[in-house]
Amino acid sequence: MTGVSVQISPLPRDRQQAPPSSFKSAEFNVEGMRCEYCAAEITTTLERYKGVKSADVDLTANRATVIYDSRAVTPQALAEEGR
User: Fold this and answer.
1) Residue 44 confidence (pLDDT)
2) Of the four, 11, 17, 32, 70, which is 20 to 30 A from 54 by CA?
3) What local confidence, expressed as pLDDT, does residue 19 receive?
4) Do 30 and 82 contact (CB within 8 A), yes or no?
């Protein structure tokens, strides 16, 4: 994903869902998105990653929220995928 920088930032406790035991939620800042196509491409890329259950990319907020299986992937690995 050329030109996109993804940085990890924690979700506030009151916004966290209660995922199944090994599933966690991570929120990322996403810089460099210019259109809905960019957001869709980032969503697709994240959702193809092994261990990701879902990804929601918000163009206007420059954020991505990812539900992932902590046994299969880490937030750091997802952030590296986005660089």
Assistant:
1) 93
2) 32
3) 56
4) yes
CATH number at residue 76: 3.30.70.100
Query: From the CA atom positions of the chain, what is the Rg in Å?
Result: 12
DSSP 19-71: --TTEEEEEEEEE---SHHHHHHHHHHHHHSTTEEEEEEETTTTEEEEEEETT
pTM of the full structure: 0.72
Distance CA 57, CA 30 (A): 8
Domain assignment of residue 49, given as a range? 5-81
- Strand 63-69 and strand 52-58: the pairing is antiparallel
